[in-house]
Write the structure tokens for this entry.
Amino acid sequence: MAEQEKKQPAVAEAELPAVQPDEANFEAPRLYRMIWITVVLLAVISVGLVVLTQWQMQQNAEVAAATARYPLREETEAHARQLLEGYGVVDAEQGVYRVPIDRAMEEIVEAYGGDSVWTLPQPSAVSRRM
């Protein structure tokens, strides 16, 4: 084989075809830009989907919290409302009774002057010694 290579005449440089740039290399920057744009677009879509999912989960949690029942809280509020708005005996021996808060406020206004003049209660004997 080496002999055949030696026998072939050398081709002059002028006869060689001119080297032309590959046309695909001209398209490479455009292809890279398209790839980068696709990657960025996918990233933006992914972030958008994550934000949308978290927002939807927050909305679902708020709806669930608004519709949830809390029996202990409801029972406590009903008991407090009954204490504030109802009559009852606190200590019968001492003569302490519970009246509705609206009625108690009316009695305080009547006791200390129901007119437009605002009268404050007088200090007790204990506080006068101080």
Observations:
- The chain is about 65% helix and 5% strand.
